[in-house]
Amino acid sequence: MKTLTKRNYFLLIGAILFFTGCSNLNKSRSNHEWVKLFNGQNLDGWIVKIHHHDVGVNFGNTFRAEDGMIKVRYDQYGDFNDQFAHLYYKTPFSHYHLKLEYRFTGELQKGAPSYTLLNSGVMFHSQDPRTMPKEQNWPISVEMQLLAGLGDGKPRPTGNMCSPGTDIVYQGKQYDGHCLNSTSKTYDKGEWVKAELIVLGDSLITHIINGDTVLQYSKPTMGGGVVSGYDSTLWQPGKPLKSGYIALQSEGQPIDFRNIELKNLER
After folding, report:
1. Residue 193 carries which DSSP code?
2. HSE-CB of 88 using CA atoms within 13 angstroms
3. Distance between CA atoms of 240 and 22, rounded to whole angstroms?
4. Does position 4 have pLDDT exceeding 70, yes or no?
5. Residues facing 70 on adjacent strands
């Protein structure tokens, strides 16, 4: 995938605005400014949902605002006990450009599954966390998966796609796997990485890592597997996912997030 230069960025945004029916590009640029989703001081405007707990219960102070970052930590846990967690921004979005920086730190929490080593993510087009029962493990959503290298010299791309309770179309066909690797480089634990998402409702989705476009796909719908414990009355396989909540993931590996900003691309 090519590097997203400043020129290419504006070309992409222009295509996005044209695609969504916007006829005045200059006006749209001036009306759609970057907004900070995290104020750098506290978790105001964010909602916690952790597996085995009711919505709003931040068990073990899993998510905390410190040093201008959102930190994911497990120092108040015992065994991990499948307490997969997500921190949701309060407002759903449909067409937008999201950017943030992340770095992995610390050690995998005792009892966390081995596949969660140096593994986290950003969920989007997610269901409202307030619709999740106490025993639902992951939200029905699409995930931009974040990974770091394992120090073994083998490539481990980041900015991948995973699909808990969803399906996507890749290269013109419905993708039949759960996760889809991007073309990104491998980044190490402790290294700050810039991740971006450009989301156009239920059409084109673009993943960008450190300025490189690393993955594109389209047509997210409800479907697939992986998610358990959900409210069956919400389950509508094939339903297009045109909007939803954005969430930061906790799967057992400490991670830091900072500079979380969003530009709304709605007309």
Report:
1. E
2. 27
3. 22
4. no
5. 65, 257
